[in-house]
Structures are given as structure tokens and as C-alpha cells.
Amino acid sequence: MAKHGKRVRAARAAVGDKENLSVEEAVALIKSNANAKFDETVEIALNLGVDPRHADQMVRGVVTLPNGTGKDVRVAVFARGPKADEARAAGAEIVGAEDLMETIQGGTIEFDRCIATPDMMPVVGRLGKILGPRNLMPNPKVGTVTMDVAEAVKNAKGGEVQFRAEKAGVVHAGIGKASFDEGKLVENVRAFVGAVSRAKPSGAKGTYMKKVSLSSTMGPGVSVDVASATGN
């Protein structure tokens, strides 16, 4: 922990007072400061002018990043019969029905994305208090409640990222790995920011996108110029 703290302080000193950098400058700085022994995740955080407690200000959606996330996504699917077979064939690691519900209720959650066929939602609905806070609850609005489970599994493993505004109006996600080429990270940043921009709710007032920042898993945050992030 002491070494980590020392390295973060050094990275922050390198960042200095640089704020509102272009996406290209921010990505280059993040990559230069990502010196951990593992491939750090590059994370994005957007501060939005919304209050998600109001239904007409909720921001939620999904985007497929052009260069993927670099993460090995484990997928769980609630399905029976032929649909369960389709999910397994598409590469889902965990497939089940009531048995899967009981496993989750028991505290075992070994997946990053949860998909369900519509007929399974009465079962999945019992897990709302467990899956909801983890942003794992299947939802038709983001394509995770569907009869086309094979396509949903394929998308989940192919760079699809879900996003949802938290209480303070913050949206965050991993958008790649520090080992990615700078150009690929820049493309992913703009794709993600563009998706959040298009998801602007009807009840949003004033400035919608207030701040954009990037960081790596072990590094400090870097403020990014909003216009650059949106490609304007």
C-alpha cells in the first residue's frame, strides 16, 4: 500500500495542474502513468447535470465500443430448454433458472453480465435487491431481456458496455486497457461519451455534461475538455 501511495503521488505530481486536456493528450498522459505490473483498466467518469432520483432525469443505456474493453466478460443467462442450449453454444459461462437464482441468493455472483429470456423475469425479479445495486439486473431497455440470447451473449463479450447514472449524477465505466493503442482508446472514449450524450433525458436542465475525466486503475484522474470528448 505504501508503494502504491508513493507512486500515485508521483503520478499526480506529473499530471500537475493540467486540466481540460484534449482526449488525445489525456490518453497519452494516462498511458504514461500506467506503470503497474498488470494491464490497468482505463476508466471514464462523467459528471452530469441530472438528478437520477427523478424518473425523467435517469440516464441509462448501452454502447458497443469500437475496440472492445479488453476485459474477459463472464455472462450468466436465465433460460430454459432450447434457449438455454443457445446461450451455452454462444459462450455463456453460467446458464440456469431457479437453480441459478438460489446460487445468487446464496451470495455467489461469478459473472459480469446477466441476461434473461422474458419468461424468466418472474424468477429474476426476486433478485432485484441483489442484482440491482450491482447494475446486473436484466433490462429490456439495454437488450438483456430478450429471446435472442445468442446475440445478447455475443454483444456482451464483444465490447458492449452498459451505463447508468448513480445518485450524484455520475456515470462511469471501463473503456479499455492501458495496453491499447492511443488511437483505439480515443475512439472508445468518444464512442462512450457520444452514447451518454444521446441518452440525455427529457428532464435534464442546464448544462448536461459538466465534466469528463479519465484515469487508470492505479493512477490519478485527468480532466478532459468536454468539447474534445464529444468530438466537437
Automatic annotation (TrEMBL):
Keyword entries, A-Z: Repressor, Ribonucleoprotein, Ribosomal protein, RNA-binding, rRNA-binding, Translation regulation, tRNA-binding
Gene Ontology CC entries for this record: cytosolic large ribosomal subunit
SUPFAM superfamilies (UniProt xref): Ribosomal protein L1
Gene3D superfamilies: 3.30.190.20, 3.40.50.790
NCBIfam families: rplA_bact (TIGR01169)
Complex and partners: Part of the 50S ribosomal subunit.
Protein name listed in UniProt: Large ribosomal subunit protein uL1
Source organism (scientific name): Rhodovulum steppense
Taxonomic lineage: Bacteria, Pseudomonadati, Pseudomonadota, Alphaproteobacteria, Rhodobacterales
